Amino acid sequence: GESVGLHLPTLSVQEGDNSIINCAYSNSASDYFIWYKQESGKGPQFIIDIRSNMDKRQGQRVTVLLNKTVKHLSLQIAATQPGDSAVYFCAENEGNYQLIWGAGTKLIIKP
Amino acid sequence: NAGVTQTPKFQVLKTGQSMTLQCAQDMNHEYMSWYRQDPGMGLRLIHYSVGAGITDQGEVPNGYNVSRSTTEDFPLRLLSAAPSQTSVYFCASSFRTGDYEQYFGPGTRLTVT
Hints:
The complex is a heterodimer.
Chain A lengths: L3 E2 L4 E5 L4 E7 L6 E7 L6 E7 L4 E3 L3 E6 L4 E6 L8 E8 L5 E3 L3 E6 L1
Chain B lengths: L3 E4 L2 E4 L5 E7 L5 E7 L5 E9 L2 E4 L6 E3 L9 E3 L8 E8 L8 E2 L3 E5 L1
Parallel strand pairs in B: 2-11
Antiparallel strand pairs in B: 1-3, 3-8, 4-5, 4-9, 5-6, 7-8, 9-10, 9-11
């Protein structure tokens, strides 16, 4: 199957600033895109998802943007807090029951 | 609710040994799955189940078996452990098949020597 990739392995952000985590995908047939957060030593935790017929979806302090023209997905975190430190994964669903995961971006919060 | 529980948390095996990783959920979730996570990589799906008595293969099923005799339990069996199976294993569940909000267990760190 096709894979989901991430532009940057590590992102450092000042506490209080906004964070933008990017993800590129290659399968234009994917119908759902999902963001997960994984804190050190724990299992991944669902953040937000977006269907392929949408461009934008907002949650609590997070916004996901989908650009199907360039096959790009981003997760924006507003007013980044120390508790946001984690590895963030994007994943896609290709229309079956399986998720294809990217390699992850580590978000580091600077005090 | 305890959510998704996994046992053991850590395990060391010798090459050729077999073992079962346990996974249970108490949320009456229909869908359950097993993933492995290797350093610097995303999760890869091993097997999944869309209900009791129904299982199917994911992306990397070789060397693993699963069964789903009840809604709650979804054990993963390693038939003959190999060093390439050294990884962190996560079990996950979701309310319905196709629901992408999956709930993950704390993981089992397996080392095969």
